[in-house]
Design goal:
Shape: globular
Number of strands: 0
Structural class: mainly alpha
Distance between the termini: 39 Å
Number of helices: 10
Radius of gyration: 19 Å
Strand content: under 5%
Largest sheet: none
Number of domains: 1
Order of helices and strands: HHHHHHHHHH
């Protein structure tokens, strides 16, 4: 039981430590080197050419669908690998957790894990889309399309990968590969944080704080899904990679659409 509490503490402390890295000296210098690298400049030039050819909406769609294709291509074989570990890893972990849960702590985790469910996040998505649409005035359609669209992107990409892997779910829950609850938190709150940065003058520390908060929410969502036995361990591990990776490409596509990405030296401005 104590071990589960320690893991819960790590699910909070590790995201805080990881999120703080870009704000520290070495992390900040590394981020600057990456943003000034030749590879990033070439990506920026390619995006600029794409915008010139297709316009911003067309370029954003190309970026988004190309990224989705890459995500599916990568997480399909990873899913097959995770499926092969079910008997060796997932079932023993599920049994180990089942014998060490505490009723009060379990109640808290059942409460928290609902944050990643579709129903509450639908309302968060709709309210966020309306608020930012009002704030963007004549360009209202950009946050409206992007914030509402991220929900569909996550749902259908996750469904496609889950169908391709077809690994089933644990006997104690209906969670599939990769964890949709984690990915939804990354996409919904990540997109809202992105539009906050695009809307207001938020300094680097503020941006790091927003990113850290989203990472913290997603990481503890993974822990709560394990504790309540809604997911296999490998579903959660994969979800913690799938959610941020999917959001990364989506953020670049939104940056292209909003006019913040697509010029040399600025291709990774939103995610550096």
């Amino acid at each position: 039981m104590v071990t589960l509490y320690v893991i819960a503490a790590l699910a909070v402390l590790l995201p805080l430590a990881i999120g703080a890295l870009p704000a520290t000296g070495p992390g900040r210098r590394l981020a600057r080197r990456l943003s000034d690298s030749a590879a990033v400049r070439r990506i920026g030039e390619a995006l600029t050419g794409l915008v010139d050819t297709l316009g911003r909406p067309g370029a954003a769609l190309v970026v988004l669908f190309a990224w989705i294709s890459a995500v599916v291509a990568v997480f399909w074989p990873i899913g097959e690998l995770m499926h092969s570990l079910e008997n060796a890893v997932d079932r023993p972990v599920l049994t180990w957790i089942a014998t060490r849960r505490n009723a009060s702590f379990e109640e808290f985790n059942w409460f928290y894990t609902a944050l990643g469910d579709r129903y509450p996040l639908k309302w968060v998505t709709v309210v966020g889309a309306v608020v930012f649409a009002v704030l963007w005035r004549r360009r209202f359609w950009i946050p409206l399309v992007a914030i509402l669209g991220q929900f569909a992107v996550e749902q259908y990409v996750q469904a496609v990968i889950a169908g391709m892997v077809d690994r089933g779910h644990p006997p104690t829950g209906l969670g599939t590969y990769p964890s949709g609850g984690i990915a939804r938190i990354c996409m919904v709150f990540g997109t809202l944080a992105l539009f906050a940065v695009l809307t207001w003058r938020i300094g680097r520390r503020g941006q790091v704080a927003l990113g850290t908060l989203v990472l913290l929410l997603a990481t503890y969502e993974g822990y709560s899904r394990l504790y309540t036995q809604k997911h296999w361990l490998t579903d959660v591990i994969s979800g913690l990679a799938f959610g941020p990776v999917l959001f990364l490409g989506f953020a670049v596509a939104v940056g292209v659409l909003a006019g913040r990405v697509g010029a040399p030296h600025r291709a990774m401005e939103l995610v550096a």
